[in-house]
Structures are given as C-alpha cells and as structure tokens.
Amino acid sequence: xxxxxxxxxxxxxxxxxxxxxxxxxxxxxxxxxxxxxxxxxxxxxxxxxxxxxxxxxxxxxxxxxxxxxxxxxxxxxxxxxxxxxxxxxxxxxxxxxxxxxxxxxxxxxxxxxxxxxxxxxxxxxxxxxxxxxxxxxxxxxxxxxxxxxxxxxxxxxxxxxxxxxxxxxxxxxxxxxxxxxxxxxxxxxxxxxxxxxxxxxxxxxxxxxxxxxxxxxxxxxxxxxxxxxxxxxxxxxxxxxxxxxxxxxxxxxxxxxxxxxxxxxxxxxxxxxxxxxxxxxxxxxxxxxxxxxxxxxxxxxxxxxxxxxxxxxxxxxxxxxxxxxxxxxxxxxxxxxxxxxxxxxxxxxxxxxxxxxxxxxxxxxxxxxxxxxxxxxxxxxxxxxxxxxxxxxxxxxxxxxxxxxxxxxxxxxxxxxx
Amino acid sequence: xxxxxxxxxxxxxxxxxxxxxxxxxxxxxxxxxxxxxxxxxxxxxxxxxxxxxxxxxxxxxxxxxxxxxxxxxxxxxxxxxxxxxxxxxxxxxxxxxxxxxxxxxxxxxxxxxxxxxxxxxxxxxxxxxxxxxxxxxxxxxxxxxxxxxxxxxxxxxxxxxxxxxxxxxxxxxxxxxxxxxxxxxxxxxxxxxxxxxxxxxxxxxxxxxxxxxxxxxxxxxxxxxxxxxxxxxxxxxxxxxxxxxxxxxxxxxxxxxxxxxxxxxxxxxxxxxxxxxxxxxxxxxxxxxxxxxxxxxxxxxxxxxxxxxxxxxxxxxxxxxxxxxxxxxxxxxxxxxxxxxxxxxxxxxxxxxxxxxxxxxxxxxxxxxxxxxxxxxxxxxxxxxxxxxxxxxxxxxxxxxxxxxxxxxxxxxxxxxx
Lengths: 418, 418
Prior knowledge:
CATH class of the largest domain in chain A: Alpha Beta
Distance between the termini of chain A: 36 Å
CATH topology of the largest domain in chain A: Carbamate kinase
Strand content of chain A: 25-35%
Radius of gyration of chain A: 24 Å
Oligomer: homodimer
Helix content of chain A: 25-40%
Largest sheet of chain A: 8 strands, mixed
C-alpha cells in the first residue's frame, strides 16, 4: 500500500464525461490498495472566462478579489469530482484551500505555499476517504483566499504530496511523459523513464512545458517523487504501481535506478527569446552595470550575455537576450538610460532560438560542449552566443535553423530511438 | 447617516455591464453618507448551470458537495462587485460566508442561519469600506460550506441586516415594489407604500413571488425593516433615503405611518393547488385522521379542508387541496391507505385557484368575508371552499374565473387606483 497524490489538469476536468473518466482512474488506484488524494484544476477555459470578468471590471483589478473570483473554478471541479467518486461507490470529500488549510504568504495572485495542515486530511484518508483538493489556491494569514499564479495546480499537488509525505505525486497531463526532445520535431525522440529534478528544471525552463517550473523546484526541495503520465490512458486498465510515465527523482535515486544512463538526457529548444545588441559601449569599469542595473530594476529577466571586442580600443559591443514579451520594455529602458550608458546605437533580433543540451551526466564527462559545437559546425549552423551551467549547455542560433539543430544534436548524443 | 444592507438578485448581476450599474447604485448610497453592506446573488443562469453539473454527476448527489459547487456562483459575483466598486474609487472588499463567518446548522443544501459574527464586518464598514457578501451561503460547525436553498440570498440579506443592526435592508428586484395585486391581471393595481410582515407572508405564500417567504419570517422575527425596490432605477439619480419602493414593517410601525390605512392590503391568486374529493368516507370519530395522518407522513402539505354532508347518514364527503406538484404522490398515498380509510372513491381537479384577500385591517373590522362572498356571488363565481386566518380570507374557485375574481375583489375593496 502506498500513499499517492494524483493531479489532473483542466483538459482532463472539462465537463461531466471527462470528470467521470478521471473518477474511474482515481477509483482504480484506491482499489489497488492505495490511500489517495487528488488535486484538480478548473475546467479548461473556465479560468480564462473568470479572468476576463476581472479585466472587464478594471484594468488595475485588486489581486485579492481576483483570487476570490478565479479560485472558484477549482472549487467547482473539486466538488464535482467528489460527487463522481461517490457515484462509483467510493468515499470521497472535497477539501478547499481554506479548509485544510493550505497556508500561503499574503502575495495575492502570486502566493507561495508556506505549509499544509495535514492532520484532518490524513485522518480522512486513513478512514478510506479519497481527498479531493482544488489546486492553485490557499489561505493567507489574513484569512483570505490566495492563488498561486497560472499553472499553480502542479505546485499544489507537490505541496500536498510533501505535506502528507506521499510516496508519489502523479501528474496526469495531455502528454504521456517527458521526452528526449519535442517528438513533433524529432520523430525518433524517446520517452524518458527517469529524469532528475535538476534536469527537469533545465528542460522546463527552456521550453519543455510539461510541468510548472515551481512545482519541480518544490519537489526537489521537499524530495517528492513526481511522475508525469497521460490522463488519456485506458481508464479500464488495471491500476499499476508503476504506470508507464516519466519519474522525476533525485540524483541519488537515479544512480540506483540507472547505472548506465545516457550522458545527455534531453535537448530543448526555446524560440521565446529576443537578442539585443548594443554597439560602441564605453569600455570602462562599471559600464556593464549601467546597462543591466536598470533592466533588473524593470524586472526584465536577461538571459545570455556576451561582450565582444568593439571596433576601437575604447569601446566594446554587448549582446544579450531577453524574453520576447519584454522586448518593448527593454527598448524603453535602454532609450531612457542612453546618456548614462553612453552606447552608440542598439539593434534587436527576435528571430533567435536557444538550443540546450541537458544532462546530469555531463558533470563527470568532459567534451559535451565540444560535441555540440562540432555537430552544429558540421551543418554550418552559426552559434551567436553560448551559456553553460553545471548540467546544461545552451547556444543561441538563427531560429530558422531550430529544427535542424535539434535533430542534429539528438543524433550526435545518441538519443535517437532504435 | 444610516447603516444599510442592499441586496441584488441574479438578473442585476448578469454580466459586466449590469454589475457596473449595481456598483453605481451602491456608490450613491455610500456617497449619501451611509455605511453599506451588499449581498449578491450569482449571475442569472449560473446556479442552474452548476446544479446541472451536479445532476449529471449523480442523481443522488451529496448535498455537502453540491454546496461546494453551487456556492461558487455568489463567490464570483461578490469578488467582481468589489472590483467594480474599487474601479469607481470606493473602498470595498468581499466577505465570503466562511470568512465572516455566517454560522448555519449542518443541513447541507437547506441550511438555516444561526448567527453572524459581525465584529470584523462592522469594523471594516466603520472604516468606510463597502462590504460585499455572497448570498445563499454560510459555514457549518463542521467547517463546511452550506447553502440555504434556492432563493436564499434574500434570507442572507435579512440575516446580515439583523447581524449588523442595519437601519434598513433594501431588496432590489425586477419589480419596483409590492402591489395590491398582480398588475398583469388588474391594470389599476397600486404599489403599496407599506405592508406588514404578516401581510407580506400571506401575500408571498399565496403567490406574490417578490420575496422569499423565509426572508420575511426572519425579518419579522429580527425586526428588520425591509424595502423592496427596483434595480432598474436610473443609477445616475441622486440616492434618496426613501426610495419609491415598498417598505415592509411591523404592525406598530405601520400604525404610526398610516393611520387611515385600507382595510384590505392586497389580493393574491394562486393556481398551484389541486383539489382532491374523497366520497363516502365513513362518518365516525377518527376517520379524518386516517386520511391526513398518512399524507402528513409523506410530507404533503394539505391546505384547505372541507367536510360535506354525504349521501347517507353513515358517510360523508371530504374535500381538500394539495400543491399540484404533490398530486401524484397524494394519489399514491390515498390508494395505499384505501382499506384503512374506507372511502368509496376519489377524484381530483387541478383546475382550481385560490383567491385570498389579505390585510391586517380585517382584525378590527367585521364583514370582510361577507363583502368577498357577495362580490363573487354577484358575478356568479362559485366558491368551492373557504379558509380563513386572522388577516386573510381565501376561497377556492374554478381557475377559469381567476382573473375575473381578482378584478371584482380589487374593486369591491376599493383598491383600484384613481
């Protein structure tokens, strides 16, 4: 017997028939002898509908009242799933964020979970009752509903799993696991049986949108074993303890599971960055701080930074990337700070892609980056910038070459399925 | 300065533009110097949509989970109205049923309010904040959301008014007050300036569906002054302390307001009853108890009862009315108890109307019933049954004659507008 948390997203909860399917999937886990808590999202489209009402009320709506309005979507699906489970003969009840409660800070609309009172929940589960918990919401010290930000239900599920010391947190999504790369780009992409938290964080933050990044960070911190699997499995199949998804585990656990693992776990591509080039920046101490200080103050997340040799001895060129969504604000900040920075001109290029190879294996192996550069050079793909972390090497290329680069690297690192 | 509660129904809250109108109406009351709490219904149609999801989940859905699901409708409108008020520059916040809390008993889906913790609410209102409270819901001792039954928001408004000792509870509806009779039947119907709780109860229970009966009972018990007025007033008109609605007050207050008041306050018609005739019931002690005992056990609400002389000395005919909705169940109960009762046969007639004249004035005046009988007899309208209370005389007639009877009586009691 295990204690498990199951999480279902909005597509899985969209309407009576789909909720009934979810109820059957949950029932099978209980029938297999497990204690089960379920975390649910609002019906697909419902949160958008509610957010729209808020925007119509006021462009500068109160985030505390926004939380009151949008939290209702998950409240509805949690009550309905409890009913559907009861209709199948299961004992079940909903536990709203304020009922447990799930304690958060006071940051309305972007709250962080601080802890969960799990005593009543554990007693209910021990008595054979399935707990249904609305995702995305909690309670502040001021006794007000808070929400965690869009996509927060993954984080709720991991927090609940940590709170009740669950053996596993199963995230049911519309994909059936984490792949070595996007299967729409590379037909030979393989589903990973295991991936570490760190790898998942790097893959998620550079474009593999399977799980919310925050939920992975929390899982890593709280050592929650997370499994990603498809909610479109045959709900009449017997419940298996090890469903064929991807398990996200710690480095140590992975060592035990997979001694002969690949050097590289996956390849991610991200087209959401834009490149900014500042030419003829004065080459003196503190010049770079004058550029990136104001951008940081404007809450613009600068990713890669390269400083080139300029055309004269006294100045230099600086290239960096920002999210495309922040490009207009970046331009405004640069214009406003032109006298202080003293650059000659700037140009921007939204047509760039960041390609990353990720894998904990590269910690102990040299030559990962060299393999990447050679493979790209062989296909004449020009590298515009490079950045590295302990388990990742990223390069910036022309976005027209995205798919080609991913395919080339997938083969170069031996990731292609047989 | 007064402390007032304003209540808006689902039609008034249906969508952004209507909520914005409501916000303006509320703002004007605050601008007039009042402390204001607002009780809101869900958007028109929303509760039906949510109830439908519950029915699809299970015919025998859990009323506790039903409450979780349907209470969300008012949660949404309370958050939105708070935002709209803020957009107008008012201080405002929502207070959910569990936040105040509004204490109820444990009867899920049909809970009764036991009390309201008003301390935080009063402090907020005293600080100039408009309190927005979702109607229809509260919190049980088991810390679960409860709802009060459909239409319960009127009752919530009166309970809040009692809890904060409001000077007035204004119920905004899609009619602009309580009339002497249905204006669709009698063009000369007059809007009443005042009506007593008792009269309102009699008028509501026999068909004037302006206010939920429970809310009137509660207002009477807690001595809350309730005003019925239209939510379709010009929201740009100045806020008046005495808006042109109908004020529901106590007997004593009415005496002071309206010394020369009418003998009769209003005429109500109700087509929702059905007549049942049992023929040849044995004329012996206890025979009637054998009929009505089983009906009471089946929770069927018998209204008028008449015992006629039968065809022989040893038996009698018994006629009574039940709600049409209960007619099939009534037939089943009578069939099942035929041996015990010993009647010869029964017949039913759904084509009946109950016409009631209501007025506290009749307590001190003889001849009210005689006027009614004569007026109906003059137009050859046959009276099938009669029942009376201290402030009401009701007769049962053929439903084809409903409109004629109402018009005749409206004139006979001098209620026609000039």
